[in-house]
Amino acid sequence: MEGSxxxxxxxxxxxxxxxxxxxxxxxxLELLDTPGKLFSEEQVAARLGLGIRELRERTxxxxxxxxxxxxxxxxxxxxxxxxxxxxGLEMALSLMPIxxxxxxxxxxxxxxxxxxxxxxxxxxxxxxREDIITAARAxxxx
Length: 142
Known about the structure:
By secondary structure, this protein is mostly helical. The protein is built from 7 helices and 5 strands. The protein has helices at 14-33, 41-48, 52-60, 89-95, 101-109, 120-125, 129-138, and strands at residues 38-39, 67-69, 72-76, 80-81, 84-85. The strands form 2 sheets. The chain has a 3-stranded antiparallel β-sheet with strand order 1-3-2. β2 (67-69) and β3 form a beta hairpin. It is globular, with a radius of gyration of 19 Å. The termini are far apart.
């Protein structure tokens, strides 16, 4: 047919979808290996001197990262130090437009050229709060 445009099928095959899901699952496992241990709600509540309800409120307000593992919330240990929550983390997370906890965890652990090729977690531990405020607000804000 003259003047007609032939369009290639843009659908994704089941195999491509499985490969993408597999790659995403692999990245999640890599993220879990980076911070090390995962804590249960009970462990985090005891560590912070909170009740489960208050911990859940902080988590649902986006002030802590909890990921679901087999249906139960687990808290990556990298968020905590000997004093409790890493200083500045709750503030940084509260400013971040992205709400996916997996994406927040990835942001926290991934070196960023804007932060001199350091991860936001490393920058938080250096008390560079202004840098973190800028990075958190910008992350996912496109």
